[in-house]
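Lecture notes, structural biology module. Today: joint structure prediction for complexes of two components.
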Amino acid sequence: MSALSGTAKRAAARLLSSLPALLGVLVFTFLLMRVLPGDPAVFFASGPNAGKEEIEEIRRQMGLDKPIPEQLVRYLADIGKGNLGRSLTTGQPVLNDLRQRLPASLELTLSALLLALLAAIPLGIVAALRPGSMVDHAVRFFCSLGVCVPTFVSGLLLIYVFYYLLGIAPDPTGRVDVFTTLPPVVTGFLLVDFALAGDWEGWTAAARQLVLPAFTMALFVVAPLARITRASMLATLGSDFIRTARALGLPRLQIIVAYALRNALLPVLTIAGIVFSTMLGANVLVEKVFSWPGVASYALDALLASDYAPVQGFVLLMASIFVIVNLTVDILYGIADPRVSVA
Amino acid sequence: MALRLHAVLRRQDHRRARGQQGDASVTSQTFRSILATASLCAMMAAAPALAQTRAETLRHVTGAAVNTLDPTMPGSTREAFGLSLSTYDRLVSMGRKQLNGKWVFDLDTIRGELAERYEVSPDGKTITFYLRKDAKFHDGTPVTTEDVKWSLDRAVTAKSLAAAQMLTGSITNADQFKIIDAHTLQMTLPNPDKLALPNLATVYPIIINSKLAKSHATPEDPWAQTWLKDNTAGSGAYMIETYKPGEQVILRRNEAWNRGPGGAQAGFKRLITQTVPEAATRANLVERGDADIVIDLQANDAAALEAKGKLKVISTPQYNAITFISFNNQIPPFDNVNVRRAIAYALPYEDMFKAALFGRGAPLYNGDWKGGPPAGTFPIPQPVKTDLAMAKKFLADAGMPNGFSTTFSFNVGQAGTAEPMSALLKESLAKIGITVDIQKLPDAQMSTLINEKKLPFFTEGIVAWLPSMDYFYRNFYIGNIRWNYSSLNNPQITEMAQAARFEPDAKKYADYGLKLNALHFELMPQVPIWQPSQDAVMQTSVEGYTYQFHRQIDFRDLSRK
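The predicted structure, tokenised, for the full assembly:
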């Protein structure tokens, strides 16, 4: 109990210490957006007969007619109140947009990470058990292939084969088939919400839509996870306590899984955390190819349109998630390895 | 090792046999199989019903997104414009005509929509509208002149995109609209402007349920602009079922709507329009039949699908749109007319047309002018073709026989066509000594630079909702505005264009057109190169597609055979 409260105290301290970093990220993004060429007022006033007065009016509406330091102070004050501004591309408050779209990105990233781990850990173990053999080379080849092919190429290829040629996959137009009614929103994760509502037909529809994009993303991140598992397993299998276990005649499966893997997983955990944070932002290509309504494609559209508020909101969100993920990984590390303390 | 595993499994078998898990697993298995069979039967029974619903639904996919339900909102996308034609009615609507075997919008035929008829006074300055008595909004309340007046006042008064458009038809002030009685409204004009009536058929002057809208208005937002962005209060052919901005919109038919040509209803019971950013996926979707219609495929995809022959591809040259290669006439050396002419004769027109558009469009070069322009409309094919010798001669006349270097810009949004075009342009201009540095700019940046008149040499396109000759010359060749790409400041063009606007006599109007076209070619402020085609790819069962002025699908035109 005291260990738990100790962890909680340390976690809170860690969160507080990351606030200055978040602030720095915010200010930097704010300034960067305004330094970028491209006047959003002109872009949004692109009606067939936009005149100078109309552009000025839009500029005034967006608050861009004020000096930059004043804009920054106003923006930070708004953030403090929880107002992330309004997107001009969707016309909605940024907070609402992010709240709607984040579960979509998270569901996709978590599924992809799960798939990747399910594939990478066995592959890494197998490669570590037979280093230098054909199996090891095959695993290395598979991983290299996964990393070399960009996600939009593999995504389009998978769509071409499984949807266009074979017709097995559903049409890649979003999280769920357009004719399926959505369940009442509880978490925003469709798999969870459908299960909670007991709608198994909908659950299957959502799961089917998830397969191809999750697979595409998983292909890309299997490589680092498999390689780190392999390296870590190799190191662990060569250590003294494993030699002792073998000498004592313990069953092979028990040695590999219960003793070696448990210790080898620690670096994998760290890498998984980093991979997760990167995936969340870098999956914009997958989101575009599969029409997935996630935060990354939302931010990209806003960036191309010089729509400041969504981009700043997105960066703040990513920075916060990165902090939380790192903290979670450290806590898990502390649980998995009693020698490590969170602070 | 194997012995141990065997022992473990045998222990599990024993447990199952003793019924600790046994009964539950047996019944759960039977239950699952019963459920599976039942659901299969249910699905098979529902299949014909589902098939019928699918045929009554039109599924449209696009790369862009609908971002507002009020088309007058600044930043509104073209797709939002297109959707508003289905959710809102207007006083009048444009008719359609055949142009080279395809249905296109007809600026000269204005038929009543919410107005059952209209009367134009002999001096052209007063138009009286007689409203239909049977028109009702989606909530069942009747459409009256109160609603029409409020909506039109909103169009000219509220800070939105509508006011600038209405101005092109001399509609500027709420005082111009007068209620005569519950079903009669009058509009007065300061001048007999031919474009006043057609302006009321454009996207912006939607007729809104004023009682409903006013109930959501606030003192800071008297025209309910915030609420109308995410909600509709119209009387149109379709009602919104679900609206997810940037993702999809689902609509169902308003069964009471009968304002199509000849009193027709809308063809489809349900409409789904979805955003699918990836162009290749859109092509796959329509080919496999999961999408019914798509109008923004890449030119090569459309050409390939047309060749395969399983889909209907309607390729219409966009006769109200023009792609230009523009010069900023105020930035040297493009302030010299001979430099502009030199470039006009050095452009590799045919190669660019094939590479950028795959030949799908209406070329605006190689025109046959025996002595003068053959017509007073705009645009007409210009009498230029690729002639490097002439180009070199003009360059020498300009005093730059060794050429010069400059930049050529285009925006990312049109990269599909502009990239091949610019590569060929660069190659050809190099042959007469002009070195070109190609600049590819994000859309927002390009708009800004064009607005600030900083780009010397670039390609851009224009669209005119009301493609009359004077509309083009007035809006794209006069004044220090963004749309005057060439930054032309010629008093003759300005004077003639303004005079043509209010010229009631058709022959004199055509004469203005001829003079303007001749002067335009002489000055060569920019080079019109082509009018790209719009490729509408759809299932063979979809009928009625018409190319509209807003270049989007008017869903009310469509039906399933």
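Point to remember: The domain at 78-315+535-560 of chain B is CATH 3.40.190.10 (D-Maltodextrin-Binding Protein; domain 2).
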